Amino acid sequence: MSAVMTQGAARSDALAVSEDVVAAKRLLLAFWITGFCALLVGISIGVLQGANYAGIDLYPYLAPFLKTYYQGLTLHGVLNAFVFTFFTISGWLIYLPARELKLRPNLALGWFTYGLMLLGTLMAAYAMFDNSSSVLYTFYPPLQGSPYFYLGITLVVVASLLPLIVVLDLRARWKRANPGQVTPLVTFMSASILLMWLLAALGAASEAVFLLDPWSLGLTSTIDPLLARTLFWWTGHPIVYYWLMPGYISIYALLPRQAGGKLVSDPLARLAFLLLMVFSVPVGTHHQYTDPGIAPVIKGVVTALTLSVAIPSLITAFTVALSLEYAGRRRGGKGLMGWWTALPWRDPSVAAQVLALVSFIFGGAGGIVNASWQLDNVVHNTLWIPAHFHLTVGTMTTLVFMGVSFWLLPHLTGRRLFAPRLALASVWLWFVGLMVWGFAGHWAGLDGVPRRAWISALPHAQYMRLYGAVHGALEVVGIGGAIAGLGAIAFFVCFFGTLFGRRDEQAMRQIPFAQVITGPEHSVMARIAEPLGLWTAVTLVITLAVYIPTLWPMLTHPIHAVGFHIW
Predict the structure, then answer these.
(1) pLDDT per residue over 30-44, tens digit each?
(2) Catalytic residue among 76, 99, 171, 237
(3) Rounded percentage of the chain residues whose pLDDT exceeds 90
(4) In the annotation, is 452 catalytic?
(5) Beta-ladder partners of 450
(6) Considering 221, 269, 276, 315, which has the largest number of Cβ atoms within 10 A of its Cβ?
(7) Whether the predicted pLDDT of 12 surpasses 50
(8) Are the C-beta atoms of 391 and 435 separated by less than 8 Å?
């Protein structure tokens, strides 16, 4: 009798676990589909941006749907940089730790996060599509938009912080059941990302709540542009790592197994994430090297801090490359670079992530120029800057999540990946297109072509007089955008083809959590990194040490500017 009862209880527990997993999958699928739908619209408008630099003005053909280049650029930036990333990252960081720890996440809070983020997105989208808020994704005042835009962005940012509660709850429950053990790697990574983002979001949240929202609602008549810019860049630089680090979770903790190997060092992965957390938040003012009102000594300190971010990037390059070499040699790779060709290049998920890493080598090199006080003066506000973004966020982040989708959608839906060869083609088209875009954009930026300029609306003679010497590079920018657009079409055919394909339980993929060669069990580094609360406090102290001297003169000597509209 007791054996029967035990078996019944075991079946009941298994059923409960199964139902929890299904419920968590539904949540991630909602986040993932919404995020990629935003990306679809954002990419479609992005093709217009590339054509603009090639001297081809397509906006008149889209009236009244899109009225100006600046409306399109705002949609492109907000949908890609905020909506796509926030939705996919929030779902990803809730789901993976729960599956790693084999615990049920707080699904009610997860769905509340999704609903709040969706409401904010719809509010901001309404304000962008009606052309009342063509203020670009940086929404620099005194450009003024609709209250729907600012309040919507505020809701999205606030909602993006809620997964931290879910992950910390999962971690706390696991540690109570496993006293004295270090947090498993994926959960450690997820918690460190969200704690970093908590500190990073303080800037944009303060700008929105105390400056932009009251101003747009008519509660204040003027705004301080310099203070608003500084608060924005408090968030605006570390947000890049909020975009990148969730992709690093796949690169470190999943890709080695997909490639046929193991992660060579768990402690090095923890060290990289810890350093990214500490170094990335205090450095936003390097985007303001040319701004007045910021002391030169602050700009010098920020230069040194910004260049320090290269340290965890180099750790990542070493650890991931060694893990991939281990995988390639296990697959039979011989000689100096035989491991590289032995990687499973026909797997679109692996190919996407490895090519994303290749693109990031060039994106990171360009970033060193942006971070250097003297060199930044050469490229500031030129096409070099968007080219850099397209090699980091546009390729590294987006291509990693595209690659993840090729196994994640079958895992979530039980449907086979639609057209695997087309999926592989989409990866190469996207990679080649954005590498071409990035190369030509850097070239044109060095020749002084401005960013955020509707240059295709110029009369042809004036366009050639201003940009004729670099017209060849600008045409290549347009060609790169068109190639990437073809890659996006191929990707979304596979994406929606998989979503609406026939169910096949045998096609369901498991999460490819990687084994490690050197684990955290006896690692001093893993123990040092474990108290994330302490490291969050250290990061906050460093951030305040940089920003209090920066913000104090602005608070005591405010600027009062009236808003204006460009539509």
Answers:
(1) 999 999 999 999 999
(2) 237
(3) 71
(4) yes
(5) 382
(6) 269
(7) no
(8) yes
- Which one is catalytic: 452, 463, 471, 496? 452
What is the C-alpha to C-alpha distance for residues 452 and 466, in angstroms, rounded to an integer?
16
Tell me: cis bond preceding 450? Omega within 30 of 0 counts.
no
430-441 confidence digits (pLDDT tens): 999 999 999 999
Which of these ranges, 55-64, 97-106, 418-427, 476-485, has the smallest mean pLDDT?
55-64
390 is catalytic: yes
Q: Are 520 and 526 in contact (CB under 8 A)?
A: yes
Q: How far apart are CA 529 and CA 433, in angstroms?
A: 39
In the predicted model, is pLDDT for residue 4 greater than 50?
Answer: no
Active-site choice (270, 286, 390, 411):
390
* Catalytic status, residue 389: yes
Contact 123, 146 (CB under 8 A): no
DSSP class per residue in 98-112? HHHHT----HHHHHH
Both structure tokens of 494: 């596979």
Residue 229 annotated as catalytic: no
All residues at 6 or more sequence positions from 417 whose CB lies less than 8 Å from its CB, including other chains: 348, 406, 407, 409, 410, 423, 494, 498, 507
Q: Pick the catalytic residue: 252, 451, 491, 547?
A: 451
Q: Say which of 59, 241, 279, 401 is annotated catalytic.
A: 241
Most confident of 67-71, 102-106, 309-313, 358-362: 102-106
237 is an active site residue:
yes
Residue 241 annotated to the active site: yes
Checking phi first, is residue 192 left (phi over 0); if not, alpha (psi -120 to 50) or beta?
alpha
| Active-site pick, 70, 389, 467, 495 | 389
Residue 272 CA to residue 279 CA, distance in Å, equals 10
